Amino acid sequence: MLNPFATVVTLISLAQDRLKREEKGATAVEYGLMVGLIAVVIIAAVTLLGQDLKALFESITAKI
């Protein structure tokens, strides 16, 4: 049976090594993916709500 203390120490050591690494390139890629996904969500929302928004603005324009 494995020693639980040794397992915890190993996990902590791996976590510390992971935190110390420079991951600027990976971070930039992650931000790029997030921006891309946000753009897809905005495009989908505008596509789905486009006609409703157009009708809303036309009614506001007519009232003005």
Q: What fraction strand?
A: under 5%
> Main β-sheet, in a few words?
none
Number of strands: 0
Structural class: mainly alpha
- What level of helicity do the residues show? over 70%
Number of helices: 2
Shape: rod-shaped
* Pattern of helices and strands: HH
End-to-end C-alpha gap: 79 Å
Q: Could you outline the blueprint of secondary structure elements for this entry?
A:
Blueprint: H1 4-20, H2 24-63
What are the main properties of this structure?
64 residues; 89% helix
Describe this structure in words.
The protein has 64 residues and is an all-alpha fold. 89% of the residues lie in helices and 0% in strands. The chain contains 2 helices and no strands. It has helices at 4-20, 24-63. The chain is rod-shaped, with a radius of gyration of 25 Å.
Give a short overview.
This protein is mainly α and 64 residues long.
